[in-house]
Amino acid sequence: MKGLAGLAIAAVLAFAPVAHADIKALEEGAKKEGELTWYVAHYTSEGAEDLGRGFTEMYGVKVNVVRTTAQVAYQRLLQDLKNNQTICDVFSSTDVGHYVRLATEGRFEKYVPETENKILPTFRNFDPAGFYHTTSAGLVVLTYNSTKVKAEEAPKKWQDLLDIKWKGKVSTGHPGFSGYVGTWVLTMKNLYGWSYFDNLEKNKPQIGRSINDTVTALNAGERQVAAGADGSTLFSASRGNPLAVSYPTDGSVLIIAPSAIMKGTKHSNAARLFMEYLYSIEAAKINAKHFAIPLRPEVPSPPGAKPISEIKTIRPTVADIDKGIPEVIEQWRDTFGN
After folding, report:
1. Of 290 and 302, the one with more pLDDT
2. Are 215 and 268 within one domain?
3. With 60 as the cut, is the pLDDT of residue 321 above it?
4. Which residue(s) pair with 109 in the sheet?
């Protein structure tokens, strides 16, 4: 009965009127509120802080940036909810399953940014009910240390990571922490079965937490190849580090990462204005600076990054992610022991 009640609530909410914005009124209200708190897993810490700073410079409203991995952000939010605390105003996870569950429980404010029609069509209307919206996109690709691995010898497809020559030389993140990694693991399982990871375990990968830990491992020379994020890898390379990416011939894993406003937020104007800001040209430029995929068509891909239109991409469905990531986290722990 509890489950049916939850579904009934979700159905009612789905057909509730969608809130839109009077931007000027939002600005005035946000300045009175003075701040908002953002739980975010989408970017590196530096990228998230840059976006928060950009909002503050534009509107004079402080952003309390709480940047963690997706699963840590989610557990923190659940603990807040359990304690009847409203700390987070805008929630930005890289695990789409979090949004499915939280929306079903009625945890989000229904809000559609006025600027949604200005982003690339691929990323619009991610949640037709209007509770959560794509605010970041990136890829999981093959990455490598370019001083230790020549381009012609670098992995070209995902199964190349299973080659014995990479034993002790592979780096990954952990699906129990990272939404990027969870989506990648689920995609590999869908393509090749769990035997892919049974075989990867034989190559004794170094397993971090965040997918961005692969950048650290490659830069330090602790590992030579990785399943890494294109954005953080290319950003590090742009700073002179010996890193490169290889777009897998069997498909780069596309990560579509939404954001949502928490129901009962104490800073509703600031939260709504922040959602508008995340679709702005200014935010897209900051994302491009950090080698994330810019959502606005006016902003080009950064130097060294392929435009998304030129890349073969693959991704699980939202339903697959919602059901599948919790399952692969347990399978991962059984296989890798952590």
Report:
1. 290
2. no
3. yes
4. 261
Q: Tell me which H or E stretch contains 200.
A: helix 195-202
Do 48 and 31 reside in the same domain of the chain?
Answer: yes
List Cβ<8 Å contacts ≥24 apart for 6-13: 6/104, 6/105, 7/104, 9/104, 9/105, 9/106, 10/103, 10/104, 10/105, 10/106, 13/103, 13/106, 13/110, 13/129, 13/131
Q: Mean of the pLDDT values across residues 31-53? A: 97
Mean pLDDT score, 4-12: 39
Structural domain containing residue 12 = 2-136+257-296
Residue 235: give its domain's CATH number. Answer: 3.40.190.10
Three-state SS for 260? strand
Same domain for 217 and 276? no
Residue 204 φ/ψ, nearest 5 degrees: 50, 60
Query: Which two three-digit tokens encode residue 54?
Result: 């950009």
pTM given for the model: 0.88
For residues 298 and 284, the answer to whether their CB atoms sit within 8 Å is yes
Residue 330 placed within a domain: yes
